[in-house]
Every structure is written in structure tokens, then in C-alpha cells.
Amino acid sequence: MEDAGAPSASTLGELKASGWVSRPVKQEVREHAIAKVAAGEPLFVGVQGYEETVMPQLENALLAGHDVVFLGERGQAKTRMIRTLTGLLDEWMPIIAGSEINDDPYHPVSKYSRDLVAELGDDAPVDWVHRDTRYGEKLATPDTSIADLIGEVDPIKVAEGRYLSDELTLHYGMVPRTNRGIFAMNELPDLAERIQVGLLNVLEERDVQIRGYKIRLPLDVMMMASANPEDYTNRGRIITPLKDRFGSQIRTHYPLDVQTEIDIMLQEAASLDVETSNGAIKVTVPDYLTEVVATFSHLARSSNQVNQRSGVSVRLSVSNYEATAANALRRGLRTGETRPVARVDDLGALAASSMGKIEIESIEEGRDGMIMESLIKGAVLTVFKDTVPPEHTRAVVDAFEEGVVAHTGESMSSAELAAVVEQVDALRAPVAVLAGGDESPASVAAAVEFVLEGLHLSKRLNKDASGESATYRGRT
Question: Which domain holds residue 71?
Fold first, then answer.
């Protein structure tokens, strides 16, 4: 459903006559959360794998009216969840027209709005702001200042003739400008300690102090934050009083199973279908290769050769899925295939899409590539064992032991690879399991290559690789 237009009330008097009721932002969020929980609806869509773990904790925090800090490694949807919380705000909210800090028309707190209401009364103009604009976010960096978050004296306003003691000389920072909304601080422990102190009043007293000014701005802000647990809990990079002021601390995690990882990959990955002068090209990544990509990430998260403190983001899976599909597309563009299907050969593209997202822990120079290749092979072998029944491969191995030799490689066309089935009739059974009824040459070729590679990794076939080509033969 599309958002409706803003209400028509344009003055304070009309707003009162409309029956609009002012309420704190946390109560606003709480009421919308209550409605969703009571209806059995998720708080928001697009975040998967947290239904039984993170979501119940988040629902509790919102129902309790807590400020929340999410603890988790990179790529665990912390920021996405925070940003999506704006969906629990009212669609439209009235403010005093021209207010920099979203002043409540019934309870203005800035001098500008107080003076305007005092002068015009019920004729004071009212504007409406959409819920999407009631969100503020700042990535904590070493150069973040109190002026950025809270505010500072505006020298231009002083130059215009106002006194320094005049509240109108203030330039409000991001927190006051998110008044009556949700403010998020990403990577909170990276904020300098002296700046963290500046957030204490916002969380506890719900006000701000700017450069010693004797002013009080009773802000209404829901504070959210994200942090890496390594920084938040062990290194002392966050001051204890600030940590104590968050009502709930919620630990996020990576997908607990491969299927959830696959669901996220398919949701987030970009389509690589293209239009060319020769027509449309549609790329297919078979289910078993999709599972290989997801399994690769899970193996990396449990490997002692990968730095687990930096995490293995779900973005790795998404990028690897896209890279696999892109390599199949590139092959299709070269060979003229309009329906290319990704093969095991295309997994070689994972090196480029993975190295920037995984921190390899290796003493020896140049072992990164070997570790990456080992993880890919481990993923292929795992999926092969889970997907292809052993009884379907015994006859295949027997055929190769009798002297059959098969050639594969990126340079071979789908028709050439599919013809291996005619050469080794025993391949029909495992290929049928993998292809799932798709008898196109591209789908058959991808299944043939996967079976042969799986048998090689199972140490049941020998493989001689040279450049982009490979030869499979029996072990005797």
C-alpha cells in the first residue's frame, strides 16, 4: 500500500480541531509494535534467519520502550534492522513550520518555535513530515565531534549581530535534528570517549547542552546503536556509563543454516540477465551450485585459517553468487548461448569476489590462494555428498576404471560437455538428479561437470588440470 498524502491541518488551531494527540516517539513505536505482534506480523520484512533468536528480543525491547544496541560482526543486518524501524512510526507527524528540530506544536522546545507560538497562537503554521525523514544516522569515526552530534555556535548568525548568549545563534547537530524520531550511531565503540560522554545526557536526561549554554532542550529521541562485540565487550573502547544507559543489548548472528543463507543470497543478489543485439541472455545458477556458494561461507566461518574476529559477512555469499553467475554470463556472451548455466568451472571467479571479504590467517606468504581453493573444494565435496546418492555413481566410476576418459573446461561448449553422457551412459542417473528434469545441453553439461568433480574430490577419479581444461580418468 502506498503512503497517503499528508493531513490537511496547516495551523495549530486546525491541528487541535482535528483531534491529533501528541505522544512520545517510544510510545508511538510501541503502539505500532503491539499492533504487529498481536496480528502475528513481522516487525519488518527483508531480514531472514532471526525469527527465533533476534526478533523476540527486539520485540521485547520495543514493547519496553528501550534504547537498543545491536552487537554483531559485519554483514549481520544490524543497520538494516535499525533503518527499517521507521516503519513503526506514524506515517505523518506535525511540526511547527520552519522548526529545525521537529518541534511538537503542542510542546515546542526551541526558542524559534516557542516565540512563534507565543506570537501567533492558534495561527502558528504547521508542517507535516514523513516518517522516512524522522531517522538520523551517523557512522562513528575518529573525527566525529560534539558539534556534529549535538551542535555548535553558528558564526554566521553571530556575524549577523546576535549575541553569543542568544539561543538563536545555535546550529543544531544531528541528534537535536532527529528530535521526535530515531537516531542511530553505527560502530559506537569507534566514537572517541570524550564524544561518548556527550551522548550520556541524551540517553539519560533526554536533553543536550551546547558549549556551556544555560539552555535545556528536552529532546524526544529513540537511540539505537550498532557495535562489533569484540570492541564493545573486551577492549574497553566504550565508556561504562554509556553502555549502562542502553536498555537492551541484542546479539545478532550469521545464518545458522545453509538454507537461510541461500534465501538471503537469492533475495539480495542482482539479476545478471542482459539484452544483446542477438536477443536476451538469461543466466541460471543450479540449486546445487547455489548451495555450494552458501556452504563456502559456512566453511569459512568455521575455518581456523580465517580470521573469525573480522567475521565472514553474508555479503560474501551474495557477491560470490553474483560472480559465479557473471562468469557463466561471460561464457555465454563468448559462445553465443542464450541460456547459459553456471558450472563448477565458474567457481574460479570466487577468488576475486572473496579475497576482499575474508581475512586469511597464514604465516606463509602466498598461501591465501591455496586456502581459498581448499574452501571451494570443501564446499563442492560437501554438497556433492549431500546431493548425489552413492548408488548413482558406482557405475560411473566403473566405466572410468574400464578406460573412459572425459574432457571438461570453460572453453568447451555445453553441447560438447553434454555429449559425455552419450559416452558414459551411467552418468544419466546422477545427472537426472541434479538437472531436475531440465534436459537442455547447458543444464546437462553443468551436472556432468559437477558429478565428475565430486567424484574426483571423493578420490574416486583422477583429474589432470591444465589452464581452463581438465581431464578425468580412472584411478587405475
Answer: 12-251
